[in-house]
Design a protein that fits this description.
Distance between the termini: 58 Å
Number of strands: 9
Order of helices and strands: HHHHHEEHEHEHEEHHEHEE
CATH topology of the largest domain: Rossmann fold
CATH class of the largest domain: Alpha Beta
Radius of gyration: 21 Å
Shape: elongated
Structural class: alpha/beta
Largest sheet: 7 strands, mixed
CATH architecture of the largest domain: 3-Layer(aba) Sandwich
Strand order of the largest sheet: 5-4-3-6-7-9-8
Helix content: 25-40%
């Protein structure tokens, strides 16, 4: 790969070669990936690449770009290579210890914001389970600072990433209480709202996922044999941690929503409804207890 860049020194040439290399690896978005990686090294954005198309690229940058492309060709996602991912206009640090925040999860944030804004009180206690990078919890706190907000994860390493994001993005942990906990094991008290993006992929499907997804932490992906094992526990235990009329919001696979609705109804939850993601698929299920 180093040889490929020897004769290409202008930004537009280096980018074109990067796109060709990723396209040859049969990646889904070679143009986007190659431009994001090069823009990061040149301390600009994708629009800036077009402006700088005729500018020379240093040997050092070309070498670093070649290494980044090789990592992408090997199946590592762009977010891990860059070490960050934008979510709701906030730049989150991400590492292989956490899931990469995805646009679908904004559906969970939007659903929670809707409930918060119709609650009729600014005294709202909320806990975000399986918080990972802290994308949901920190976004909610950023947009509704008055929340009494808790965030938990079973992974100590994930919590460290989330806490670091809170300090950087909110100017300190800003009232978010971070707790190492297997679901509710170390969570005390009751809440008005519980949010969760738990592991929900059936164990047998993990091996069929895209290479970049398989490099994300299995602990945050594997939902057991049917993908619902952890969600079952969450639904059962949440009853002891919700105020009367409190709301439980769970992100899941659109194909699981019918089963989740039945589980919630069988456990005594009411007002069950789903929220669609940007692709029009049912992504989040909401219920009260």
């Amino acid at each position: 790969m180093k040889e490929a860049f020897k004769q290409h020194t202008l930004t537009q040439e280096v980018l074109a070669e990067g796109i060709a290399l990723l396209k040859a690896a049969h990646l889904e978005t070679p143009g986007l990936d190659a431009s994001l990686l090069l823009a990061d090294l040149l301390h600009t954005d994708r629009a800036g690449l077009n402006i700088a198309g005729g500018d020379p690229v240093s040997d050092e940058v070309r070498q670093r770009y070649a290494r980044s492309l090789e990592r992408r060709r090997a199946g590592e996602c762009v977010a891990y290579i860059l070490g960050r991912k934008e979510f709701r206009d906030l730049d989150f640090t991400v590492t292989p210890d956490v899931l990469v925040p995805r646009p679908d999860t904004e559906t969970l944030v939007e659903a929670a914001l809707g409930l918060i804004d119709t609650h009729g009180s600014k005294s709202i206690r909320l806990v975000d389970l399986c918080t990972g990078s802290g994308a949901v919890a920190i976004s909610l706190k950023h947009e509704r600072p008055f929340l009494d907000l808790w965030a938990s994860d079973i992974s100590v390493k994930a919590l460290a990433v989330a806490q670091g994001n809170a300090v950087r993005l909110l100017g300190g942990e800003a009232g978010i209480h971070f707790v190492e906990s297997d679901l509710f094991d170390q969570i005390e008290g009751r809440f008005d709202i519980i949010t969760a993006n738990p592991p929900y992929i059936p164990s047998g499907m993990i091996a069929t996922l895209a290479p970049e997804v398989r490099k994300e932490p299995r602990l945050a992906l594997d939902g057991g044999e049917d993908g619902l094992w952890i969600i079952h526990r969450l639904i059962e235990d949440a009853q002891d941690h919700l105020y009367p009329g409190g709301m439980l919001l769970i992100e899941g696979d659109p194909r699981q929503m019918s089963a989740l609705s039945q589980i919630l109804a069988s456990e005594g939850y009411e007002a069950i409804q789903t929220h669609k993601d940007l692709a029009g698929q049912q992504r989040v299920i909401v219920s009260s207890f």
